[in-house]
Amino acid sequence: MIKLIEYTRKKTFWFLDFLKGSKVRVHYDEIKFIMENYTTHESTELRAENLHKLLTHATSSCTFYKPYGDFIDLSDFPIINQSIIREKFQQFNSDKFDQSEKYEMTTSGSSGTPFKTVQDKNKKLRNTADTIYFKQKAGFEIGSRLYYIRNWLTRHRRPWITTIMRNIVTLEVTEFTDSYISDFIQKVEKDDSTQVIISYSSALREICLYLDKIESGPIKNNLSCIIAMAEGLSETTRKSLKKYFNTDVLVRYSNSENGIFSIQLADDNRNLQINCASYYIEILHPEKDEPVEDGEIGRIVITDIFNYCMPFIRYDTGDLGCITKNDDYFDGTPAFELVEGRKMDAIYNTEGKIISSFIILQIQTYSTIKQFQFIQDGIRTYTLKLNMDKRMENELELVILFKSYLGEDADIKIEYVNEIPQLSSGKRRLTVNNYYKMN
Asked: Which of 242, 246, 305, 353 has the most CB within a 10 Å radius?
């Protein structure tokens, strides 16, 4: 009976889309064709045509981009970021759309400062198609039960009828307590639906810590996969999720203002497949607007090919990553080998070189640590804030570990706190750089 209900939901979605002109289906088919035929002449031409249309539209209808109308190459356009968009918001709005055709998107911003953008209907349809296609490749079909764990601010909440139709169960990360997590686990165990969990990585860790604490055995479930988003997923948390839920654990890289940039599609392939159908992605030097070699860490800069209402051309996401073109999931498509946290929160060693944020995540191997935050206060001074029931007996071991990455001359102070505060988004900043932010 459950399978029939899920099948009916899926068929109903596509039937309603058909009645509206198959608008999502057209986008879905194009995404599928581009991704699965990436190296063909047809796919290459279609990607180039879509990018050219966006640039032509932006330079003819947006005040900010009109001075670049004679430019041919994408590299001739300036790099933009949240600060520039906030300051010149109206200049990024296309004069081809009136207010009734705009859908406002408000996010918490990279560090908690609200960030407002707008999208047009076609962009929203593209995002829907992206979501359907990439979730499907990850093992999640329309109609399956989606447990969605995040901070459900008013701007993110959907009408109750939408959550029912889309089979979404919303869970509030700011309410995570032992009893709340226990109730959630019981729901999963009793649910006969095909399920998927999408969650902040930090919330997944809290679930695992709770299961560790109660010495739980494997959790009965019908999960097709667990998708982690928003923050780095440590190997410790990944292994714990596999232990308790025995399902694929995947990672998604996206943001609220644009959509899905990339997603891991196979448990045995840790690369994140880039959404080349809807975005053009560049990796630029951390300090200069120059491309880096494949495999080198740099700033992730995206061009959103389908938001005509408010074009994002060469938008610095504030994140760091590196790309490989030697991934065989799709034929020839680039993939992220690594996606780091916010550039403004990147940590540097004592020689001024960026270290991987995944080094910081090694703290999660200590199960007695509830929450943590690593702060760089100076070129050689760092503070590690820990929330735990009692002081660590092996503080020196942790200091030695971090010195091996930061430098033997690193001055590392450990500070015990009762809570690492959440941002308005419900996320916690795992790293803070107070030194390089001011220089």
From this structure: 305
